Amino acid sequence: MLATAVLVAALAGVQTDTAATKATACASPRVTAAHTSRVERALRTHHDVWGNVLLNAPNGPSYEAAQRLLPPLLYARAPGKRQLTEAGVYYLPFGQPLGARGAGSVALHVADGSQVIAEHVSGRRLTILVGKHGRERYGSCLARLGQARLADGYQPIMTTTYTDSARVRYRQESFAAQTPETGSLVSFIRLDVDASRASAKAVQLRLSPSLGGLRKQGNSLVRRGSTFLAFSESGIVKRSALTYLIRRGTRRTIYLAWVNYPGRRGLAVDAGRYESARRAVRAYWNKRLTEGTQILVPEQRVNDAYRNLLIQNLLLTWRYSIGNPYEQFSFPESVDVAEVMGELGHAGVARSIMRTALTRKDTPYPNWKMGKRLVGSALHYRLTRDRAYVDGATPMLQRYVEELGRQIGASDTGLLGRERYSSDISDQVLGLHSQATVWQGLRAMGRVWAETGQAELARRCEALAVRLEAGLRRAVASSQRRLADGSLFLPARLVDGEPAYGSLTQARLGSYWNLVMPYALASGLFAPGSPEAIGSLRYVLRHGSRLLGVVRAGAYALYENPVYPTSGTDQVYGTNVARFLADNDAADQLVLSLYGSLAVAMTPNTFVSGEAASVAPLAGNHFRSMYLPPNGASNAAFLETLRSLLVHETRDAVGAPVGLELAFGTPRPWLRAGRRIGVRRAATSFGPLSYSLEARTDTIHATVDVPTRPAPKSLKLRLRLPRGQQIGSVTVNGKPVESPPGETRGETIDLSGLAGRLEVIVRYGSRRPASSAVVCDVSNPQPLDRRHAGRATRTWCCLRGTGRPPTRRCR
Fold first, then answer.
1. 113 contacts 148 by C-beta, under 8 angstroms
2. Residues 505, 565: contact at Cβ < 8 Å?
3. Are 757 and 702 in contact (CB under 8 A)?
4. Does residue 228 contact residue 262 with C-beta atoms inside 8 Å?
5. Tell me: the pLDDT tens digits for 481-527?
6. Where on the phi/psi map is residue 81: left (φ > 0), alpha (ψ -120 to 50), or beta?
7. What angle do CA 32, 38, 44 make, to 5 degrees?
8. Separation between Cα atoms, residue 73 and residue 454, nearest integer Å
9. Which in 274, 374, 450, 455 has the greatest CB count within 10 A?
């Protein structure tokens, strides 16, 4: 059976040397000149050329279309452009955390099946070797390696397949579980070996630990009385290595247990012990997943990604990554994770991350960090009404308010003082991203203190926010640039004369603008639908900000002195992009981000992502690389994108939450007849929210349980029907209602003011052909004023993916 990797490689233009394959039994897949040229053309184009193709497809973007455009991610890089693992392949982090603080212990299972590592990439390793002489690293020939997969599609139980050079076939399954026998995390491995078609009389399966001095004691490898490895019968131990002789024509199954923290309490491993540990792992994670929001959509890959990314982040919690040098708290990214986990109902994890945030040092950009802590703390309270957290955090947060007030009071402009741009850019700047975050945090936390009896502190926050906002608006007005294409460039470096970037990845500062600016755009400083918001959105879409809906970046940690257009992606910063798109009703762009993230920002079927990922081929490799995976913030970006498609909160003029928009960005095929969408216990500022949509032949049955803490002032449901269909009639609890004829072709149903459980029945049918078509030139999109949303004329052209009237055709 051909490996999935080879099929994907063939689709994307991989080059192999047939003669070399016959001689060496394997050839590394290399990138072709045609593929390199195609990628370079896409990276040189200032708009999202591939994304626009997907947007203009009859059914909109899809995972299948997105994943054909680039080879999958496979390799992982460490600082200094080094391989992260000995094989160069990424690993999956497995563990079983005891509570909201995440992993106390972790096992790293390399995704080609070659190695299991305890705790850290520099830790103790068990390497799996195969072949006639037991010297071929399992998974080393990518042409004979089956792509890693997860049990049930999402469980942290990995399966790979491999055929060695002697034509012996292997199926490997592995996971990690806490064991009462050892008191340690243990990696369990099952190897099914099929030598029925072997070309050699016998092959060796060799398990090689990275440390010496091990000896056999029963069916265990021990040193100084401590058990490191337990194994099935018939293993031969020599020089600390365990070997099984597999004869041609035979099949057998071997079980292994590699202990993270060896101790004098050993364990025995066989089929029964393996299966009991496997059942326990599945039960543990299924239980943890039920603690938060349940999301079910008509696309299994999306459901699997949602569950597995939650599992990863329940393991990582405050950790930016795990098992590598990025195992640290990172600002502002780790607070982003806290916010998203809170929105998805994992309040204990969110609270734990925020408490950790308050213990970290303020340098090197204290204002941004203080602002982000204020934002995250306010959101946690809004979602949970957790007075204990607010009471405990207030002394520290009050100190932040005093320091921010000192700076604002001493300023002639009303702005905060200069501080470092970011971790990687040492320039001292008046950063719009950091100052807007502080403004957002002062307003949000001020409302919390007003509600919890800290009236004086609330008034102080409001006064500081008003002065800071005035200073920011003056600085933005004097620094912004309206470009010839009608887009608006808002500088990250206020008053310093930062030039507008033709293509954001063309310069290092442009690339970093693309990473930090979403914090300002999602802060609420620029009201949704305002000229600043729409102009900024147009700039983002037309100046190299996105590739297949994923955040673009220079990816300098991966490339050695890259020359434009060589660049990659950095979806770590997609969380606030998703919020900005949702605020401005850019539904199709959100759908593009969902599928682009799945297809190019994470590994297929195992959903691992790094801080950055290569797009332009790296070192001639066909398969792509990522930097220090896994990454909790990149995971959070996908989770926030999915939530924004299904549940979005709206804010009033002063930033207070006022309404809910349900299903405003769902992919249109999700409402084909026979499909169902379900959301249970979504955390919102108004309390837990649940709703479901079930599409039948000519009706959609929707159920909405309206939250009541307090009830939202505005509640709207949108039914993004498959193209060619339109709503005919709507009843709510048996009473007919009117759907608005103008906005979004009557797909939005206003449920404001209603309470309790709402039963919505929508009848739909085929749409009549439009009398005239809206024409949109994707290379030069024009904005559509909301006042003209009901008109379908050639005068007005949609800004692609903003929820405005769609195009019938695009040239």
1. yes
2. yes
3. no
4. yes
5. 999 999 999 999 999 999 999 999 999 999 999 999 999 999 999 99
6. left
7. 135
8. 50
9. 374
Tokens representing 721 are 């029907």
Q: Has residue 44 got a pLDDT over 50?
A: yes
Report DSSP letters for 258-324, one per residue.
Answer: EEEEEES-----SHHHHHHHHHHHHHHHHHHHHTS-EEE-S-HHHHHHHHHHHHHHHHHTT-SSSSS
Phi-psi region at 75: left, alpha or beta (left = phi > 0; alpha = psi -120 to 50): beta
CB 401 within 8 A of CB 442: yes
Contacts for 547 with CB less than 8 Å, ≥ 6 apart: 42, 43, 48, 50, 51, 569, 596, 600, 615
List the chain domain ranges.
Answer: 1-80+299-329+545-636, 85-287, 361-526, 656-767, 770-811
Looking at residue 740, its pLDDT comes to 55
Query: What's the gap between Cα 687 and its chain centre?
Result: 25
Q: Token pair of 774, please?
A: 């809206």
- Residue 605 CB neighbour total at 10 angstroms: 21
Q: Quote the CA–CA distance of 530 and 553 in Å, as a whole number.
A: 27
Indicate left, alpha or beta for 495 from its phi (over 0: left) and psi (-120 to 50: alpha).
left
Question: What's at 348, amino acid-wise?
Answer: G
Which tokens sit at 180?
């009462």
Tokens representing 398? 């009050």
Q: Outline where DSSP puts E strands in 323-468.
A: 419-420, 428-429
Cα distances (angstroms) measured from residue 357 to each of 113, 331, 349, 443, 710: 36, 8, 12, 20, 29
Length of the chain: 811
Supply the pLDDT for residue 266. Answer: 85
Q: What is the pLDDT of residue 560?
A: 84
749 contact partners, CB below 8 Å, separation of at least 6: 716, 717, 718, 719, 730, 732, 737, 739, 760, 762
* Residue 682, token pair as written in the block: 């979504």
Q: What is the pLDDT of residue 15?
A: 40
Give the integer Cα–Cα distance in Å for 102 and 96.
8
Q: Indicate the SS3 state at residue 37.
A: helix
C-alpha 701/C-alpha 688 separation (Å) is 21
Residue (of 446, 336, 329, 340) closest to 394 by Cα position: 446
DSSP for 174-203 reads EEEEE-TTTSSEEEEEEEEEE-TT-SSSEE
Fold adopted by 85-287? Beta-galactosidase; Chain A, domain 5 (2.70.98)
Sorting pLDDT into bands at 50, 70 and 90, what band is 774? Answer: very low
Helix, strand, coil % (nearest 5) of the chain?
Answer: 35, 25, 40
Residues 450, 455, 457, 461, CA torsion sign: positive
Angstrom distance (rounded) from CA 542 to CA 752: 36
Looking at residue 12, the DSSP 8-state letter turns out to be H
Task: Report the sign of the C-alpha dihedral through residues 90, 95, 101, 105, in that order.
Answer: negative
Residue pair 490/432 in contact by the 8 Å Cβ criterion: yes
CATH number of 656-767: 2.60.40
Cβ atoms 640, 574 nearer than 8 A:
yes
* pLDDT of residue 150 exceeding 80: yes
* Contact indicator for 494, 415 with CB cutoff of 8 Å: yes
Average pLDDT over residues 636-653: 97
β-pairing, 241-247 vs 82-83, is unpaired
- Specify whether the CB–CB gap between 746 and 774 falls below 8 A: no
Residue 750: CB atoms within 10 A of its CB come to 16
User: At residue 115, what is the residue type?
Assistant: Q
Say what the pLDDT of residue 223 is.
96
Q: Who's near 502: CB < 8 A, 6+ residues apart?
A: 46, 543, 544
Record the tokens describing residue 102, joined without a space. 């995440």
